[in-house]
Specification:
The protein is α+β, with helices and mostly antiparallel strands. It folds into two domains: 4-140, Fructose-1,6-Bisphosphatase, Chain A, domain 1 (2-Layer Sandwich), CATH 3.30.540; 149-256, D-Maltodextrin-Binding Protein, domain 2 (3-Layer(aba) Sandwich), CATH 3.40.190.80. It contains seven helices and 15 strands. The strands form three sheets. Strands 4-3-5-6-7-8-9-10 form an eight-stranded mixed sheet, sandwiched between helices. Strands 12-11-13-15-14 form a five-stranded mixed sheet, with helices on both faces. A two-stranded antiparallel ribbon has the order 1-2. Helix 1 runs antiparallel to helix 2 and helix 5 (186-193) runs parallel beside helix 6 (207-219). The longest helix has 23 residues, at 4-26. 46% of the residues are buried.
Length: 259
């Protein structure tokens, strides 16, 4: 018998099909860009995708809450809350760099239950149920294990997002790993879940940036926390460190100042 997480994941994939269709259609023309108050990019497609996702969620699960990047939050006290980022990596989307995607997650009790990273430009989709499993285009995936800090491949979206007070700790970790790749947006977290990289470290993020990747990485056997080792919740905003291996995660936390 299909359990509730599998039922909700099937619905998340269904609405991801809708977002993918909108993004692929919109990609035929260069988007007009607006700036938000925080100077980040937003386009009409960001808003159109989130509006479509919210419409389908409201129709199917009217008692569920929703948190989205473009249209805010509703019913965050509900048992189930959908967490949406219609285009993660809007700057990449604007430039036509194919690392952007749609993030869809369902939280239960304020924690990530399941997630979808849909990557329309490359035809890839990652799905996961926290603690249960993760898949890349339907094939089971696992995080990479046993990598030393000196051999670790790390990703970070953009060093400009890192607040001044956090740059020295980040630099310590950056100096300790083998290599750091910048600018991958949500694709970087997809690579971590697939066992292609070892660490993903970022700052200035919100729950809608991380809930879907967290569920997938945890489903693939990895770990995601803030820089102090604490879990992410719906009120979280700030710094994140994700790792495929718990021992490597602990070493990263040491360098980031968590002791």
């Amino acid at each position: 018998m299909t359990d509730i997480a599998e039922t909700f994941l099937a619905f998340a994939e269904k609405i991801a099909d809708s977002s993918r269709a909108l993004l692929l259609a919109a990609a035929q023309e260069a988007p007009r860009v607006d700036l938000k108050q925080d100077a980040s990019f937003v386009t009409a497609t960001d808003r159109a995708v989130e509006a479509r996702l919210r419409e389908e969620i409201h129709a199917a699960f009217p008692d569920h809450g929703i948190m989205g990047e473009e249209y805010g939050s509703e019913r965050l006290d509900a048992e189930f809350v959908w967490v949406l980022d219609p285009i993660d990596g809007t700057a990449a989307w604007v430039a036509g760099i194919p690392v952007y995607g749609t993030l869809i997650s369902l939280a239960r009790g304020g924690k990530p239950l399941l997630g979808v990273i849909d990557l329309p430009a490359t035809g890839e989709r990652l799905t996961g149920i926290s603690g249960r499993g993760a898949w890349h285009n339907g094939k089971a995936i696992r995080c990479r294990k046993g990598t030393s800090l000196a051999d670790a491949y790390m990703t970070s979206s953009n060093p400009r997002f890192i607040p001044e007070a956090d740059r020295a700790p980040f630099a310590r970790l950056d100096d300790a790993v083998q290599f750091t790749q910048y600018g991958g947006s949500c694709y970087s977290y997809a690579c971590l879940a697939r066992g292609r990289t070892d660490l993903a470290v970022d700052a200035g993020f919100d729950a809608y940036d991380l809930f879907a990747p967290t569920a997938i990485i945890e489903g693939a056997g990895g770990i995601v926390t803030d820089w102090r080792g604490g879990p992410l919740d719906l009120a979280w905003r700030g710094c994140v460190v994700a790792a495929g291996d718990e021992a490597l995660h602990a070493k990263a936390l040491d360098l980031l100042g968590a002791g």
